[in-house]
Specification:
Aminopeptidase, six-stranded mixed beta sheet
Length: about 230
């Protein structure tokens, strides 16, 4: 390994396998398009996560142990949303409206028993929104990651960062971003918004670049009335 490669930052991007009778998941398609990409001094590593409660956290932990990333960005599908939405907060609850890919449907169970009620993202979410909008990509802050496997892995990520610091890599940052349907998915749901894979991939590239360079988030409005 060269000195240049040895000094590179490792970034972990995760996306999910398809769920809820879908044949494709835009989160994985966008994430894997960036596998091996060089963003600044960082190398991106993409990993697919199972859309299964519990199993997703195990797969995430294994990937983090393998790669020892300094930045972890988990990505998931949010059918019906029209924008790229960095999530503000993960809550300690599993409440499946539908079953996961293993047939599990937990109701009102904690992600991690006895752990804090919630964790905030440590990504500069408002700076990411700012930079995406500047690039012509619709984006806004989201204040709810739901209660399905997306929130499950988001909470698990933040809990792991808080309680299992990666040896030799202090200050690991992490968070979650939801992305819309792909056009071929939205075609099955008349009126549903969508976004091209190329746009979503570029959005994630910008999000990673911003997260690597912006240490203090910008003080811009990202709140909602309801």
């Amino acid at each position: 390994m060269s000195k240049t490669e040895a000094k590179r930052t490792s970034v972990l991007l995760t996306g999910f396998d398809p769920f809820d009778r879908e044949a494709i998941n835009p989160s994985w398609e966008a994430v894997r398009a960036l596998d091996g990409a060089k963003i600044g001094r960082a190398t991106v590593h993409a990993r697919q996560m199972p859309c299964v409660f519990g199993d997703a956290l195990e797969a995430l932990a294994n990937a983090m142990d393998e790669l020892k990333p300094q930045l972890v960005l988990c990505v998931g599908q949010a059918g019906g949303r029209s924008e790229i939405t960095p999530e503000r907060i993960a809550i300690n609850i599993d409440d499946g409206r539908i079953a996961d890919n293993a047939g599990h449907q937990p109701i009102d169970l904690p992600v991690v028993p006895g752990a804090p009620a919630a964790y905030f993202s440590t990504l500069p979410i408002k700076a990411i929104v700012r930079d995406l909008r500047a690039a012509g990509i619709p984006s806004s802050v989201s204040n709810s990651a739901g209660t399905f496997v997306c929130n499950h892995i988001f909470y698990g990520l933040m809990h792991r960062i808080a309680t299992h610091p990666v040896s030799g890599l202090p200050g690991v940052r992490g968070g979650f971003i939801h992305i819309p349907y792909l056009p071929e998915q939205a075609a099955r749901f008349p009126g549903a918004p969508s976004m091209s894979l190329a746009t979503m991939t570029e959005a994630l590239r910008i999000a990673v670049a911003t997260a690597l360079t912006v240490k203090q988030d910008v003080a811009e409005t990202g709140g909602q009335l309801h």
